[in-house]
C-alpha cells in the first residue's frame, strides 16, 4: 500500500500531515510512503529528513501515482487523486461542501478526521483536540504579545505592576489550555462555558468560574459532549453577566464553537467599548464567523482602543508541534485499523461511518445528507 503525503496548498498553511517519525512507523507496518517535495518546509522538516526516514520524495503526480491512501492536513485539491484511494485529512465538510461532491465525483473515499467520534479509543486520533490544545496555548501568547502591560504581578523598587485579568470564554480543549497557560504566566484567570460540567475543570486549574445560575433547566450539553444552541432566555442572562464581568478584564480569549453552525456571538461592540483601552481580545472562532463583533479573520483590528486579534489557522502558527501531533493522529488512526493480510486499513462501523464522507461516487455521510 502506497501512502502519499501532499504539500499543503492553502495559503498560510504551514503544517504537514506526516513527519519522519510517522513515515518510519508506516514503513514498519509494511507501507511505502511518498512525500511531495517541500511538504515539510513550513514545519522545518527537510525533504532529506523524510527520505532518511524511508520515504521517496517527488512531485505531486509522482507521489499520487498508484497511491492507495492520501494524507493531508487540509483537504487536497480533488484533481489528480487516484480513483479508489482513501483521503484522510481535515476536510472542513460543512464549510467546503462543494469539494466533498468533487471527492465523490473523483471516486475517492474521503475521510474527515474532524468527524472522529469523541470516544475513549479514538482520543489518540482526534485532530480537533490535538490542534485546539495548541491553539489555546498560542492564543494566550498572542494576547500577551499584543498587550502593552505585563501578565504577572511584579513588585519592583519602582513600584508594583498588577496582574493581568484574563477571561476565557468557552472551556473546551482550547479554553482549558488557555486557562492553564494564562495561569502559568501569572494572570488572574476566570472562565465561562454553557456546559455546567466545565465548572469543576475551571476550579481545578485555579481559575474562577463565571456562570449563569438563575436560568433553570439548561444543561448546555448535547450529543458527544458538545455544546448545543442555547435558549434566548439563557443567552440574555449570559450576556448580562458577561457585560458586567468583561468591563473589568484586560484580556479575553474566546473559543466557543457549535459543530456545524456559525460560532455563537459572545461579545458585542458595546461590550468591547466597555473594556479599558489597551485591552486585548483574541477570537479563536473568527474563521467560523467569530465570537466577537468586529473581529476580522486574518487581522488585528483596534475598536474603541481595544485590540481584537483574529489570526487565521492558529495551529499553523506552531507548525512543527502541530504537524507532529496531527501526523500522530493520522498514524494512530490508520495503524489501529491496519489489516496485516490485506496490507491496508479496514475501518470498523463506528468510526468508519462517522468519518466517511464519500464512497463509490456518492456522498454517504449522514451529517452531510441530513444538512442537505
Ligand atoms: P468546541 O471546540 O466545540 O467548543 C469550545 C467550547 O465552547 C466548548 O466547551 C463549548 O461548550 C463552548 N461553548 C459553545 N457555545 C458557548 C457559549 N454560547 N458560551 C460559552 N461557551 C460556549 O469544544 P471542544 O474543545 O471540541 O470540546 C467539546 C467537548 O468534547 C468537551 O466536553 C470535551 O471535553 C470533549 N472532548 C472529548 C474527547 C474524547 O473523549 N475523545 C476529546 C476531546 C474533547
Automatic annotation (TrEMBL):
EC number(s) on record? Answer: 7.1.1.1
Task: Extract the SUPFAM superfamilies matched here.
Answer: Formate/glycerate dehydrogenase catalytic domain-like, NAD(P)-binding Rossmann-fold domains
Q: Which GO terms describe its cellular component?
A: plasma membrane
The protein's enzyme class: translocase
Alphabetized, the UniProt keywords read: NAD, NADP, Nucleotide-binding, Translocase
**Reaction(s) this enzyme catalyzes, per UniProt:** NAD(+) + NADPH + H(+)(in) = NADH + NADP(+) + H(+)(out)
- Sequence ranges assigned to domain Alanine dehydrogenase/pyridine nucleotide transhydrogenase N-terminal in this UniProt record: 4-135
Task: Tell me the superkingdom of the source.
Answer: Bacteria
Describe its function.
The transhydrogenation between NADH and NADP is coupled to respiration and ATP hydrolysis and functions as a proton pump across the membrane.
Record-linked PANTHER family: NAD(P) TRANSHYDROGENASE, PROTON-TRANSLOCATING NAD(P)(+) TRANSHYDROGENASE
Name the chain's protein.
Answer: NAD(P) transhydrogenase subunit alpha part 1
Taxonomic lineage from the root: Bacteria, Pseudomonadati, Pseudomonadota, Alphaproteobacteria, Sphingomonadales
Amino acid at each position: 500500500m502506497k501512502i502519499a503525503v501532499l504539500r499543503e496548498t492553502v495559503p498560510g498553511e504551514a503544517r504537514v500531515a506526516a513527519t519522519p517519525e510517522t513515515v518510519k512507523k508506516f514503513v514498519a507496518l509494511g507501507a511505502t510512503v511518498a512525500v511531495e517535495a517541500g511538504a515539510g518546509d513550513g514545519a522545518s522538516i527537510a525533504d532529506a529528513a523524510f527520505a532518511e526516514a524511508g520515504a521517496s520524495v517527488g512531485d505531486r503526480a509522482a507521489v499520487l501515482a498508484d497511491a492507495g491512501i492520501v494524507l493531508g492536513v487540509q483537504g487536497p485539491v480533488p484533481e489528480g487523486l487516484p480513483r479508489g484511494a482513501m483521503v484522510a485529512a481535515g476536510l472542513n465538510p460543512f464549510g467546503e461542501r462543494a469539494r466533498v461532491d468533487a471527492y465523490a465525483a473523483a471516486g475517492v473515499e474521503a475521510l474527515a478526521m474532524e468527524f472522529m467520534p469523541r470516544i475513549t479509543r479514538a482520543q489518540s486520533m482526534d485532530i480537533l483536540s490535538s490542534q485546539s490544545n495548541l491553539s489555546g496555548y498560542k492564543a494566550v501568547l498572542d494576547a500577551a504579545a499584543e498587550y502593552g502591560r505585563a501578565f504577572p504581578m511584579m513588585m519592583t523598587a519602582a513600584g508594583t505592576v498588577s496582574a493581568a485579568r484574563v477571561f476565557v470564554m468557552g472551556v473546551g480543549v482550547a479554553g482549558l489550555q488557555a486557562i492553564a497557560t494564562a495561569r502559568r504566566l501569572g494572570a488572574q484567570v476566570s472562565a465561562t462555558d454553557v456546559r455546567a460540567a466545565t465548572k469543576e475543570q475551571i476550579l481545578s486549574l485555579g481559575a474562577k468560574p463565571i456562570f449563569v445560575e438563575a436560568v433553570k433547566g439548561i444543561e448546555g450539553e448535547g450529543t458527544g459532549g458538545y455544546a448545543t444552541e442555547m435558549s434566548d432566555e439563557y443567552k440574555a442572562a449570559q450576556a448580562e453577566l458577561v457585560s458586567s464581568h468583561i468591563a473589568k478584564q484586560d484580556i479575553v480569549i474566546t473559543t466557543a464553537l457549535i459543530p456545524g453552525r456559525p460560532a455563537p456571538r459572545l461579545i458585542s461592540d458595546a461590550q468591547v467599548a466597555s473594556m479599558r483601552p489597551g485591552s486585548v481580545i483574541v477570537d479563536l472562532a473568527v474563521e467560523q464567523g467569530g465570537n466577537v463583533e468586529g473581529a476580522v479573520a486574518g487581522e488585528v483590528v483596534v475598536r474603541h482602543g481595544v485590540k481584537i486579534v483574529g489570526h487565521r489557522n492558529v495551529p499553523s502558527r506552531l507548525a512543527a508541534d502541530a504537524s507532529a501531533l496531527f501526523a500522530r493522529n493520522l498514524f494512530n488512526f490508520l495503524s489501529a485499523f491496519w489489516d496485516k493480510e490485506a496490507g491496508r486499513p479496514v475501518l470498523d462501523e463506528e468510526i468508519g461511518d462517522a468519518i466517511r464522507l464519500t464512497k463509490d461516487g456518492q456522498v454517504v455521510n449522514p451529517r452531510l445528507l441530513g444538512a442537505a
